[in-house]
Specification:
Elements lengths: L15 E2 L8 E2 L3 H11 L6 H11 L3 H6 L1 H4 L12 H16 L10 E4 L2 E3 L15 E5 L2 E5 L4 E4 L9 E2 L2 E2 H8 L2 E3 L6 E3 H8 L4 H21 L9
Antiparallel strand pairs: 1-2, 3-4, 3-7, 5-6, 6-7, 8-9, 10-11
Helix pairs in contact: 2-5, 5-8
Length: 233
């Protein structure tokens, strides 16, 4: 996601680009690209929006990511013409919907353990939702997230761990970022409990974990059903 570094060292490829004042919207997919895709697939129904979806789908294709793994960390990705345009366009649209709306999207049903015993959310007090640093916990019946000293969440579906972003699973990113951490240089403390309070519900972080779990499982379901991206051009 773009942040302040976008202006100096970041890269972002949006659907549209705008002037500094937010006006004069320009299409970031030129007409020449649309023409080439339509000619390649002999399909005049292909639009710039669907090409954008197609590119997002291609960037998730396992064979494409494996073959160009070294190149993708050093240079801009080159997008192939896959045999089935619409398979990747439809997959890209589904993936984008999952990834853009994960904060409000569906959540996987994940159990909560209090002191090692399963409980319902209404059996947990607000204070028991306080968290400092989550970590993984291995139990005989699966993999759990140790939420705090009393609460654990799980079991986490193994499929969720397969969705990896920048070298870590999406759930690992949640565990890493949603904690209490003080920056040594500035002395500023980032407290996840402040974020939880802002959400208006004490189980906000557990709900987020459920949503990211759902997103991860569904992402891999879509990715596993993609056709080959390479071999046609």
């Amino acid at each position: 996601m773009p942040n302040l570094h976008y202006q100096d060292s970041g890269q972002c490829f949006p659907r549209w680009v705008f002037d500094a004042d937010g006006d004069n919207r320009q299409d970031n997919i030129p007409g020449e690209a649309v023409h080439r895709f339509r000619a390649r697939y002999n399909d005049d129904s292909i639009t710039a929006d669907r090409i954008f979806d197609y590119v997002y789908g291609i960037l998730h294709a396992p064979d494409y990511r494996a073959k160009f793994a070294n190149d993708l960390v050093k240079e801009l990705p080159r997008i192939p013409f896959a045999a089935d345009f619409w398979a990747f366009a439809d997959a890209g649209s589904q993936l984008a919907g999952l990834h853009l709306n994960y904060m409000t999207g569906p959540a996987a049903e994940i159990g909560i353990l209090l002191g090692g015993s399963p409980v319902f959310p209404d059996m947990i007090t607000d204070d028991e939702y306080q968290v400092r640093k989550m970590r993984w916990l291995e139990r005989g019946d699966g993999r759990f997230i140790r939420y705090n000293e009393r609460l654990a969440i799980g079991p986490i579906p193994p499929e969720a761990m397969r969705y990896v972003v920048s070298g870590k699973s999406a759930l690992d990113w949640v565990i890493d970022r949603y904690c209490v951490k003080t920056d040594k240089a500035s002395g500023i403390t980032n407290d996840v409990n402040d974020w939880i309070a802002e959400q208006g519900t004490p189980d906000a972080l557990i709900r987020l974990i459920g949503r990211v779990t759902y997103l991860s499982v569904q992402t891999m379901r879509i990715v596993d059903n993609l056709p080959p991206a390479l071999g046609d051009g």
